[in-house]
């Protein structure tokens, strides 16, 4: 996979630019239907102008390496997608998106394979390894794989699992994504403090009203909701011995490298943790802080 260019930290603000524009448009509705239509027309004219400029820039480029860098920059790629100018076809973009989440899947002992993309825009996937049966597959697919695919290929209409006995109904995977490709109940929160964890260290963090427990095993960081499923209590004070996290109250051991698996089928509740724009970020579902 090609190296992605460095981006300034404030580039993350552009991830929500579409929402801010829509909010401004909605506020124009207070001035009546005519005012709202003029505001929409203004946006269409500006978008068309920048689209024409981007298309001309791409035609002037005679450097495949530079074009590749543009295609792998999150902000530029999103603009190219809006105007139908992205140089990579949908299969290439979906494949690249899966490559970006494979380290997360691998940390839970699994992987994902792209089977096909249908003419109707449906992506068919299958899990391999422990992801096939692990309860964290729901979190992994809906919050990591789905997010990556929809960012890279917003024209995708559905995501389906080929495994018939999956714990995730395929028809529900995009139920919380509206027609603009926005997640209604999921958001990513940068947590740069996680980089400060030393190998073997466990720390508690309050992120958007939710307490999570993060631990570092070697050069990998893992995040879980702060709740022991056995004693139904906080994990504050938990210790880490290799990959095993021990609850300080009931003394149950959980393998944090294998999706928080414990004895007798008990599982910690994992939170997808990915590097986004150079910053470790955790995915949360709304309402934040609600029990899993």
Automatic annotation (TrEMBL):
Domain of life: Bacteria
InterPro entries, A to Z: FSCA_dom_sf, NIF_FeS_clus_asmbl_NifU_C, Rieske_2Fe-2S, Rieske_2Fe-2S_sf
Annotated GO biological process: iron-sulfur cluster assembly
Keywords, sorted A to Z: 2Fe-2S, Iron, Iron-sulfur, Metal-binding
Gene3D superfamilies cross-referenced by the UniProt entry: Fe-S cluster assembly (FSCA), Rieske [2Fe-2S] iron-sulphur domain
Domain Rieske: 188-282
UniProt GO MF annotations: 2 iron, 2 sulfur cluster binding; iron ion binding; monooxygenase activity; oxidoreductase activity, acting on paired donors, with incorporation or reduction of molecular oxygen
Role description: May be involved in the formation or repair of [Fe-S] clusters present in iron-sulfur proteins.
Protein name: Rieske domain-containing protein
Record organism: Mycobacterium simiae
């Amino acid at each position: 996979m090609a190296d992605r260019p460095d981006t300034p930290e404030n580039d993350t603000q552009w991830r929500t630019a579409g929402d801010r524009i829509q909010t401004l448009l909605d506020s124009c509705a207070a001035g009546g239907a005519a005012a709202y239509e003029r505001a929409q027309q203004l946006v269409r004219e500006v978008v068309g102008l920048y689209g024409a400029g981007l298309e001309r820039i791409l035609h002037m480029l005679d450097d495949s390496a530079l074009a590749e860098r543009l295609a792998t920059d999150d902000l530029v790629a999103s603009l190219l997608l809006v105007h139908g100018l992205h140089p990579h076809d949908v299969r290439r973009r979906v494949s690249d998106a899966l490559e970006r989440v494979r380290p997360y899947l691998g940390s839970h002992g699994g992987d994902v394979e792209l089977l096909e993309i249908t003419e109707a825009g449906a992506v068919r996937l299958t899990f391999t390894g422990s992801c096939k049966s692990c309860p964290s597959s729901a979190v992994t697919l809906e919050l990591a794989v789905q997010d990556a695919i929809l960012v890279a290929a917003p024209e995708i209409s559905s995501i389906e699992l080929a495994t018939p006995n999956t714990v995730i109904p395929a028809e529900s995977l995009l139920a919380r994504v509206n027609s603009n490709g926005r997640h209604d109940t999921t958001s990513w929160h940068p947590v740069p403090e996680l980089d400060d964890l030393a190998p073997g260290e466990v720390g508690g963090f309050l992120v958007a009203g939710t307490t999570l427990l993060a631990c570092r095993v070697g050069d990998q960081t893992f995040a879980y909701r702060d709740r022991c499923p056995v004693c139904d209590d906080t994990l504050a004070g938990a210790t880490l011995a290799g990959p095993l996290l021990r609850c300080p109250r009931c003394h149950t051991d959980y393998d944090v490298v294998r999706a928080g698996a414990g004895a007798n089928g008990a599982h910690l509740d994992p939170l997808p943790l990915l590097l986004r724009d150079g910053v470790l970020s955790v995915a949360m579902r709304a309402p934040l802080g609600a029990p899993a």
